[in-house]
Amino acid sequence: MIQSIFEARELVTFAGEFIEALRRGDARLEELALVEEREWVAVAIRRVSDERASTESALATALPLPELEAERQVNARASWQAWVDSIEALLFGIIDHVSAGNPLIEVLFPHQNFDKVRRAGGPGRTYMTEFERRRSTSYVLRMATEPEYAFLPSLLASVDDARARLAVDEAPPTLGAIELDALRHTVLEVAGALSRALAQARLLAEAALMTSPGLLTELGLDAKPRKRSVRAASARSAAEPSPS
Predict the structure, then answer these.
(1) CA–CA separation, 191 and 196 (whole Å)
(2) Fold of domain 5-65+174-239
(3) H helices within the chain, ranges in order?
(4) How far apart are the C-alpha atoms of 112 and 126, rounded to whole Å?
(5) What is the pTM of this model?
(6) DSSP-based three-state secondary structure for 106
(7) Domain locations in the chain?
(8) Res. 240 pLDDT band, cuts 50 70 90
(9) Could you read off the pLDDT of 191-226 as tens digits, one per residue?
(10) Terminal-residue alpha carbon distance, the chain
């Protein structure tokens, strides 16, 4: 029985590894020309894959849970990098379509030290604030309507989309205790189904490889999910760096 979000998260990782082991087992069965046994393994792969996808989806929806604070931080860091990518793409787009000396570059990019911006922190946030001010100037808005700059609106839209995604990923959770409990319950329920699918898959693999029992261990198909205490998992998450 799955008892914690941490255990559900570990189970998703294990399921991915187990699917790969099943695929290796399928390849060996193909070498042995065991057609019916391959069908059993195909069923195992499908069931585990489906339940793993459901559990991943539930975990993604459950990001507001305090247990998934580390995941939220990872998403926020990735979104920050995506925003920096978008403004770099804007710069290179202007250079490619017009020139490196175009006035738009001077207006939008008074400096281009993107490595420093990527490190976020105070300087990065200051740069973002300044960039957004410059991006909203009448000059930039006017240029985006000119035929010569037909490429500009889509690049600016990409920047805006990346900024909106960052705002979502950095927003603090606002759900109440009842809503959080409902999310937690959903994750544990679908993770329980994944656990059962893994148990079935293990039995199917054992039956399929009955004539070559050593393969079960060789391929890692007799492995079981690692058990980790909630305290240990919490300590690991707390040790991960926070975004600046």
Answers:
(1) 9
(2) Four Helix Bundle (Hemerythrin (Met), subunit A) (1.20.120)
(3) 5-31, 35-61, 69-97, 103-108, 114-118, 121-135, 138-143, 152-170, 177-208, 214-218, 230-239
(4) 14
(5) 0.75
(6) helix
(7) 5-65+174-239, 76-170
(8) very low
(9) 999 999 999 999 999 999 998 878 889 998 988 887
(10) 37
